[in-house]
């Protein structure tokens, strides 16, 4: 059974989707769930079927005390790197929460302080804590919807299926057609992608 982390009223969970993609934005969500909220299907979005993710996303939007969703563009990713862009997306999602959270549970191991609100980084938190799992679901479904829309512009890259991740079909299309305006032109696995700029 997933649980809260701080176990306090107005505890927000936050997570991102699309960090490992070659195209499109990185998307983050932040969610404050009501006390006692639970659902048998709620889990890390990667462990939930697409149909169940859609069902959960609707339920979370209807049930949450507050939620926020933010996309940070591929051009910003190119400019500040994917780690900083992921944290920026989380901050932008947190900006949307009303009322303001009293604590923040963050999926992963890197974050920048968000004002004076206490936070805790939790590795694999999306599979252990309800509010992070809820944020994972909202981030994933929102980004998937966006990539399906972009697929209509560039169907040869198969974004409706791969959502911008580096599948073989996506890599083959890049070799054949070159990058689109939505591709992360500086994105590659390098040391700079692991640094936070303060």
TrEMBL record:
<dbReference type="InterPro" id="IPR012337">
    <property type="entry name" value="RNaseH-like_sf"/>
</dbReference>
<keyword id="KW-0479">Metal-binding</keyword>
<dbReference type="InterPro" id="IPR022898">
    <property type="entry name" value="RNase_HII"/>
</dbReference>
<dbReference type="InterPro" id="IPR036397">
    <property type="entry name" value="RNaseH_sf"/>
</dbReference>
<dbReference type="Pfam" id="PF01351">
    <property type="entry name" value="RNase_HII"/>
</dbReference>
<keyword id="KW-0378">Hydrolase</keyword>
<keyword id="KW-0540">Nuclease</keyword>
<dbReference type="GO" id="GO:0004523">
    <property type="term" value="F:RNA-DNA hybrid ribonuclease activity"/>
</dbReference>
<feature type="binding site">
    <location>
        <position position="15"/>
    </location>
    <ligand>
        <name>a divalent metal cation</name>
    </ligand>
</feature>
<protein>
    <recommendedName>
        <fullName>Ribonuclease HII</fullName>
        <ecNumber>3.1.26.4</ecNumber>
    </recommendedName>
</protein>
<keyword id="KW-0464">Manganese</keyword>
<comment type="similarity">
    <text>Belongs to the RNase HII family.</text>
</comment>
<dbReference type="InterPro" id="IPR024567">
    <property type="entry name" value="RNase_HII/HIII_dom"/>
</dbReference>
<feature type="domain" description="RNase H type-2">
    <location>
        <begin position="9"/>
        <end position="198"/>
    </location>
</feature>
<comment type="function">
    <text>Endonuclease that specifically degrades the RNA of RNA-DNA hybrids.</text>
</comment>
<feature type="binding site">
    <location>
        <position position="16"/>
    </location>
    <ligand>
        <name>a divalent metal cation</name>
    </ligand>
</feature>
<dbReference type="InterPro" id="IPR001352">
    <property type="entry name" value="RNase_HII/HIII"/>
</dbReference>
<keyword id="KW-0255">Endonuclease</keyword>
<feature type="binding site">
    <location>
        <position position="107"/>
    </location>
    <ligand>
        <name>a divalent metal cation</name>
    </ligand>
</feature>
<keyword id="KW-0963">Cytoplasm</keyword>
